[in-house]
Known about the structure:
This protein is an all-alpha fold.
Amino acid sequence: MENQKYSLGQLTLYFLRLGTWGFGGPVALVGYMHRDLVEQKQWLTEEEYKEGLALAQLAPGPLAAQLGIYIGFVHYGLLGATLTGLAFVIPSFVMVVILGMVYQLYSGLTWMRDVFYGVGAAVIGIIAISAYKLTLKSVGKLNTNAIKANWPLWLFYILAIVITVITQQEQVLLFVGCGLIYMVIKAPPLWLKKPTASPVILLTGMGFWYYSKDTLIEIGLFFLKAGTFVFGSGLAIVPFLHAGIVNDYHWLTENQFLDAVAVAMITPGPVVITVGFIGYLVSGFPGAAVAALATFLPCFLFTVISAPYFKKIAKNLSIKAFVDGITAAVIGALVGSVFIIATRSIIDIPTAIIALATVMALIYVKKIQEPYIIAIAALLGMLIKSL
């Protein structure tokens, strides 16, 4: 193995910190990884990051966790993927279990919506800045020459924004289609030039120990399905969870489900970790553990099984063009997600001011960290709601 700029311990520690302090959901988290690991630490190349983002978007399950698993795999194989995945997920899992215990003990968290009132608005500011930076890096600069030079990528980007906003979900077939079109435009593979070749596309009080064996099996199967068949960011999995948990199984009431989504937004790490909170309310700690494991296992297996082949073929010019096309559509879909989340979080003048102030702070106050912004927004939310 070639000498690396970092040790496996350093990478694991980074993802442990990101899982502990990384607020803002998938758009912000993939932005943090690019800022920290590509731009600042230079542990990854731009190409390695793009490959990981493309594979993560094509795989089922939570986007940010998949990208973290891929990054761990890049230089440290299966052990790296396992350690980074666990380090990224465990901090937020512990937090949601603790919140679940408090929730059971006090029969609900009425203050949580007051906190989310401020935090949700701040999160919009954070992910808007992340989406803007990813756009400049992955699609191109916002000037006439750059747009002319990369017009297909900008077309995919805008198309993905529009479709994501209209359908309110991310379309994996759109990503694949954009990748294939850009591959044909930029670097047509040999099988297109020689039609005779046949192409192959790889495509307790707190309820801690209270559980029922039958319910655990149902939880495991339901969340395994959620982790296997739902693509994209944490945003994409919410409607699927709502349909099963509230409408089909009646495990939670509508208000309890909304509280679970609020928990996901006010805790760091992947938004999908709300499955741990949901699992806890249904069947205590065993339910939380089964729900989290079942949700994240498919994306882990898909990433570590696919990554070696994806990494080997990614240097091919046709595959590079394919990845570039997918990346442009993925970033567009993430920007579309920002618009969707904004319609749910910015609901009046105070929340609009908090979101705008967050953007201004991140642009002009260089040393400010996102957790401080989240804490201030949470206090503002509680203060405004108490008046």
